[in-house]
Write a structure and sequence with these properties.
Bound molecules: NADPH dihydro-nicotinamide-adenine-dinucleotide phosphate
Structural class: alpha/beta
Strand content: 5-15%
Helix content: 40-55%
Number of strands: 12
Largest sheet: 7 strands, mixed
Strand order of the largest sheet: 9-8-7-6-10-11-12
Distance between the termini: 34 Å
Radius of gyration: 21 Å
CATH architecture of the domain at 213-367: 3-Layer(aba) Sandwich
Length: 448
């Protein structure tokens, strides 16, 4: 017999499918949350009766705009810009901007939806949003990236504000892009409104530890989760996918905690370095030269495997840190067969639902991105705090705050999972803990 809560959520999900056709990643993200919150709506039917669940699935505002720009040869290009302001029950909309050719409305909606619950889990006063463009920064000169960012901000600025909507980086948007975006915002508004963007450079309002925060936070989460089984990262073999911001700093913290990252990747393939990834070299190639991991393999004389799956490399801990749906059921089976103990998502939704289930069924510790990668946005909120008080904190103090926040998120997920009859299930714990806080705030704020 299907319970009334389940049938209400099923009809609500059918509505989401009907109203958002073709947005597969968004459907996937909604499905996971709805599956997790069944026991919540059984206890608290008012969340369905007051349409809190259906409202949480509908963005407060969706902005789509044209971004015209010229390349170095004077040719005109037209891209599409997006900002989905999903939920502001807990604070101003907060979430990064992604510049990648694959971006469409469904990408931004899935990321914005996830962001609501992630931001709630941090315990900080921030709502959820996300934005971006189908612009591809790869191979573009600094001047082209600047012109694109200026054009993008010339439309987006009217929707932003430190009490309204505060973007940050994501795939394809790092310190360089945030600089150009902030510069244009400042120029148009004639305001040095530091708190309107996070991920800024240290000399112009940025926070220590923000570049490191997502990767460091994921490693802290991994450590805390392993401790629940009396284990740690010390001496562990780790594989990290990607080689961008999140991957780089996940590798750095894993090494500091005594682990050894033996493989990482980009969209062309993966490298295996049994001695442990040489981070100075990787940073030089990826952050300074904006190069490829293939160049790392060439410089170190280690194997580069074009295409293929980085999850074929045996490891104790896997940290998918590139993009959505990059770890499939077959990869999960390989990880299990190779003795993997834990999978910690540095990226957003990198593990498919089938792979997640396969890992959990085999007793692998599984940390969902909305909990494990929340250190980035949490440190963005710390950056906003420093901007508001015109202060700047030391690296050590900021990192300590990040570590405390990650431990609290871990414990909140673990306790909530226990309380709702799913001990050890961090997906259920994260979704319920994230959702209940937002839902309570939405009820309190009335029908808006
Ligand atoms: P970066 O742009 O710095 O790096 C992305 C990395 O992932 C690159 O190595 C890139 O390879 C690879 N990648 C991207 N898209 C694909 C794809 N379609 N197929 C294969 N590989 C791909 O991004 P971040 O490190 O900032 O972001 C990585 C993930 O972490 C994303 O899911 C993001 O949403 C999430 N995240 C980021 C946060 C942050 O603070 N930056 C915060 C929380 C989550 P290539 O260069 O070849 O494209």
């Amino acid at each position: 017999m299907v319970s009334p809560a389940v049938s209400r959520l099923e009809s609500l999900y059918a509505d989401v499918l009907r109203r958002n056709p073709g947005e597969d990643e968004f459907h996937q993200a909604v499905r996971e949350v709805l599956d997790s919150i069944v026991p919540v709506v059984e206890r608290r039917p008012e969340f369905v009766e007051a349409c809190v669940v259906s409202r949480v699935c509908e963005p407060e505002r969706q902005i789509i705009f044209r971004v015209p720009w010229t390349d170095d040869a004077g040719r005109v290009h037209i891209n599409r810009g997006f900002r989905v302001e999903f939920n502001s029950a807990l604070g101003p909309f907060k979430g990064g901007l992604r510049f990648h050719p694959s971006v469409y409305l469904g990408t931004i909606k899935f990321l914005g939806f996830e962001q609501i619950f992630k931001n709630s889990l941090t315990g900080m006063p921030i709502g959820g949003g996300k934005g971006g463009s189908d612009f591809d920064p790869k191979g573009r000169s600094d001047a082209e990236v600047m012109r694109f960012c200026q054009s993008f901000m010339t439309e987006l600025y009217r929707h932003l504000g430190e009490y309204t909507d505060v973007p940050a980086g994501d795939i394809g948007v790092g310190g360089r892009e945030i600089g150009y975006l902030f510069g244009q915002y400042k120029r148009i508004t004639n305001r040095y409104e530091s708190g309107v963007l996070t991920g800024k450079g240290l000399s112009w309002g940025g926070s220590q530890v923000r570049p490191e925060a997502t990767g460091y936070g994921a490693a802290f989460f991994a450590q805390r989760m392993l401790e629940t089984r009396g284990e740690s990262l010390d001496g562990r073999r780790v594989v990290v996918s990607g080689s961008g911001n999140v991957a780089t700093y996940a590798i750095e913290k894993v090494h500091q905690l005594g682990g050894r990252v033996v493989a990482c990747s980009d969209s062309e393939g993966y490298v295996v370095d049994e001695a442990g990834i040489d981070l100075d070299l990787l940073k030089q190639i990826k952050e300074v030269r904006r190069g490829r991991v293939r160049e790392y393999a060439e410089a170190r004389g280690v194997p580069f495997v074009p295409g293929g799956s980085v999850w074929d490399v045996p490891c104790d801990v896997a940290m998918p840190s590139a993009t959505q749906n990059e770890l499939h059921a077959g990869d999960a089976a390989t990880l299990v067969a190779n003795g993997c103990r834990a999978v910690v998502e540095g990226a957003n939704m990198p593990t498919t639902p089938e792979a997640t289930k396969a890992l959990q069924d085999c007793g692998v510790l599984f940390a969902p991105g909305k909990a494990a990668n929340a250190g980035g946005v949490a440190t963005s909120a710390l950056e906003m705090q420093q901007n508001a008080s015109r202060d700047s904190w030391t690296f050590e103090y900021t990192e300590q705050r990040l570590a405390e926040i990650m431990n609290q998120i871990h414990d909140r997920c673990a306790q909530t999972a226990q309380e709702y009859g799913a001990p050890g299930n961090y997906v259920v714990g994260a979704n319920i803990a994230g959702f209940v806080k937002v839902a309570d705030a939405m009820l309190a704020l009335g029908l808006i």
